[in-house]
């Protein structure tokens, strides 16, 4: 296990990102080599030591120095006692390491106390100046707008990352993407810059283009992304399409990885009939993952089975889940104990000649069951709501499986509320007080006879606990073609004027979140086939009283960011709309927008939620939840 401080849903730990950046890793590895035979006195003025030692275990201190007079003589966590930094000269150590990226400041501060001992700092591991639009402080979060993406180009599959320059809405002028591509062994295949000069411009990074541009062999690996010049926040968002090639009919989509490691991840399904579930483990750090450091277990059971191979820095390994658990099958679900070595893992399901990709979700360690959720004010209506589409039951089967998403949660008291597209209720179904290890999934197509959407809500009639983080896995299958897709997401309080703690959340700003800004990419051509985008756009409401129909504006943007056209639609509270850009905008406008163009979904009256995808017109489709910015 890596003993490190990492990200959390309420904000990023910029120190973690600064220490784990691949360019920084190279500098600190050189420092490790320099100090490998030294007894080391470490001065830690900002509390960096646990994260440094977690990521770089070779940098073990012999003595820890402090400038805090009250800490002198206190246990240092490494079997000794903290020493006063002014006594460096008398301390038995070969070298001093100051855990600061500000080399000049450390040399000025400590120079008179070193007694001839060499001083090293993290200054040699700073990012180059061209990566730093904000020089002070160095650990400005927007200096580290970074993320990873699963990336692959083979004879069977291609991938395509799609996003937009949403940073311009926060005042960013010129954006540069720095990209480093690692192959399956963790070696660097290529690195390059992508310039994004226009405000609101579309951004497309296609594995076919990358392979051709750098003359690469086929590859499976991960793409490290650093957005230079970001403003507003440090969250790098994207949609990642995966396409079957050369006769493979696969088509699927996933999205940005949460850019922080977690101890546990959930929403990994066990294999269904004729399925192989392949878990992609991608080491997110420059330190190898030891044998047995990553395990899987059936959800709610302490039956752990380990990934036994050592996984090198940035290496990608495919794990056959069914081989680890041959007696476990859907709707059983698994939990991943990752030891904080991974950002959000992907998995792929292979069934009857088609492959679909999806992601696991961070399982929260900081949430406990909260009795206050059971007695929330009636001003918040049904409280937490998890909305998801139910496409036409005559064409698709739809399943939902509630999933625990915090370590302490032992029960899931859940109800399903169903709505047609016009927002009219189609019934409610109490699912019970489900145990953590439940192995059930609900067939939504058997509960509805028309398209619409469903919502999971808490229902405590049989007891149980709520933690404010309800999640579920949703599976969809085209009845005629057998093509399938799946996604997972969590619930929030939606569209109430009254607030509860940090809910209703907003895409930007404090609660209540009563506006919408969603990104919907346009379609594209692939091997002569036209793929068209769509969106199941949902108007979820925790409290229906007083809610008016939405006034939703659809802004069609060209790849260069220019706005091409607008259309306005209206969705009833608790209603939904199957949005298809090719049905709202004429062909000439869509051609003008081009590949890399997109639709920005804006509403200043309510917060909408959506699930997007691509379809080829003959039954193949992808589906995942959308992102806002």
Explain the overall architecture.
The protein is mainly beta and 629 residues long. It contains eight helices and 40 strands. The strands form nine sheets. The protein has a five-stranded parallel sheet, with helices on one face. A five-stranded antiparallel sheet has the order 17-16-19-14-22, with no helix packed on it. The longest helix has 14 residues, at 22-35. The two termini are 33 Å apart. The model is unreliable at 7-12 (pLDDT under 50).
Alpha-beta content class: mainly beta
With strands numbered from the N-terminus, the spatial order across the biggest sheet is 3-2-1-4-5
Strand content: 35-45%
Give the terminus-to-terminus CA distance: 33 Å
The average pLDDT score comes to 94
List keywords for this structure.
629 residues, mainly beta, five-stranded parallel beta sheet, five-stranded antiparallel beta sheet, 8 helices, globular
Describe the SSE topology:
Blueprint lengths: L13 H7 L1 H14 L4 E4 L5 H7 L7 E4 L16 E2 L10 E4 L4 H8 L8 E3 L23 E9 L3 E8 L10 E8 L5 E9 L5 E5 H8 L4 E10 L10 E6 L6 E5 L8 E6 L5 E8 L11 E5 L6 E3 L8 E5 H4 L8 E5 L8 E6 L2 E6 L1 E3 L20 E7 L5 E8 L7 E10 L4 E11 L6 E2 L8 E7 L12 E8 L5 E7 L1 E2 L22 E6 L2 E3 L2 E10 L13 E6 L5 E7 L6 E4 L1 H4 L2 H7 L4 E6 L5 E7 L8 E2 L4
Parallel strand pairs: 1-2, 1-4, 2-3, 4-5
Antiparallel strand pairs: 6-11, 7-10, 7-12, 8-9, 8-11, 12-13, 14-19, 14-22, 15-18, 15-20, 16-17, 16-19, 20-21, 23-28, 23-31, 24-27, 24-29, 25-26, 25-28, 29-30, 32-38, 33-34, 34-37, 34-39, 35-36, 35-38, 39-40
Short description:
The protein is 9% helix and 38% strand.
């Amino acid at each position: 296990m890596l003993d490190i401080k990492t990200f959390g849903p309420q904000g990023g730990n910029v120190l973690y990102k600064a220490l784990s950046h691949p360019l920084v890793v190279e500098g600190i590895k050189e420092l490790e080599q320099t100090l490998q035979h030294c007894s080391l006195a470490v001065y830690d003025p900002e509390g960096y030591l646990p994260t440094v030692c977690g990521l770089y275990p070779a940098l073990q201190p012999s003595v820890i120095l402090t400038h805090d007079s009250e800490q002198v003589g206190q246990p240092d966590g490494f079997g000794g006692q903290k020493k006063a930094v002014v006594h460096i000269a008398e301390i038995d150590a070969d070298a001093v390491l100051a855990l600061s990226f500000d080399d000049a400041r450390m040399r000025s501060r400590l120079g008179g106390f070193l007694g001839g001992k060499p001083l090293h700092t993290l200054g040699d591991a700073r990012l180059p100046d061209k990566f730093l639009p904000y020089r002070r402080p160095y650990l400005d979060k927007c200096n580290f707008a970074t993320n990873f993406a699963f990336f692959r180009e083979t004879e069977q599959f291609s991938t395509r990352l799609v996003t937009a320059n949403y940073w311009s809405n926060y005042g960013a002028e010129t954006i540069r993407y720095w990209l480093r591509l690692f192959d399956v062994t963790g070696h660097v295949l290529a690195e390059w810059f992508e310039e994004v000069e226009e405000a609101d411009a579309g951004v497309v990074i296609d594995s076919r283009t990358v392979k051709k541009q750098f003359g690469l062999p086929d590859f499976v690996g991960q793409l490290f992304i650093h957005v230079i010049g970001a403003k507003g926040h440090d969250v790098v968002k994207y949609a990642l399409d995966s396409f079957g090639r050369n006769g493979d009919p696969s088509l699927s989509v996933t999205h940005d990885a949460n850019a922080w490691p977690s101890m546990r991840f959930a929403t990994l399904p066990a294999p269904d009939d004729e399925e192989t579930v392949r878990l992609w483990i991608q080491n997110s750090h420059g330190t190898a993952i030891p044998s047995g450091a990553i395990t899987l277990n059936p959800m709610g059971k302490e039956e752990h089975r380990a990934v036994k191979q050592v996984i090198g820095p940035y290496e990608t390994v495919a794990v056959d889940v069914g081989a680890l658990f041959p007696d476990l099958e859907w709707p059983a679900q698994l939990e991943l104990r990752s030891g904080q070595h991974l950002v959000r893992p992907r998995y792929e399901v292979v069934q009857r000649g088609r492959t679909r990709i999806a992601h696991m979700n961070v399982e929260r360690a900081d949430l406990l069951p909260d009795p206050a959720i059971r007695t929330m004010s009636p001003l918040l209506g049904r409280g937490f709501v998890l909305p998801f589409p139910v496409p036409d039951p005559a064409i698709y089967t739809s399943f939902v499986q509630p999933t625990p998403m915090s370590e302490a949660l032992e029960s899931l008291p859940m109800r399903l509320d169903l709505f047609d597209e016009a927002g009219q209720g189609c019934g409610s179904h109490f699912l019970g007080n489900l145990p953590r290890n439940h192995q059930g999934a609900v067939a939504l197509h058997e509960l509805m006879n028309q398209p619409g959407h469903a919502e999971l809500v808490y229902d405590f009639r049989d007891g149980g606990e709520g933690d404010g983080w309800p999640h579920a896995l949703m599976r969809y299958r085209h009845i005629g073609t057998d093509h399938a897709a799946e996604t997972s997401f969590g619930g929030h309080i939606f569209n109430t004027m009254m607030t509860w703690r940090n809910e209703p959340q907003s895409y930007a700003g404090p609660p209540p979140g009563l506006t919408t800004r969603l990104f919907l990419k346009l379609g594209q051509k692939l091997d002569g086939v036209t793929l068209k985008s769509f969106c199941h756009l949902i108007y979820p409401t925790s409290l229906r009283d007083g809610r008016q129909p939405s006034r939703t504006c659809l802004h069609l943007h060209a790849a260069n960011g220019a706005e091409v056209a607008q259309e306005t639609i209206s969705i009833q509270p608790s209603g939904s709309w199957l949005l298809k850009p090719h049905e709202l905008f004429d062909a000439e406008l869509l051609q003008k927008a081009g590949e890399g163009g997109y639709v920005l979904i804006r509403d200043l009256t309510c917060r909408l939620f959506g699930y997007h995808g691509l379809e080829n017109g003959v039954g193949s489709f992808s589906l995942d939840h959308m992102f806002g910015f």
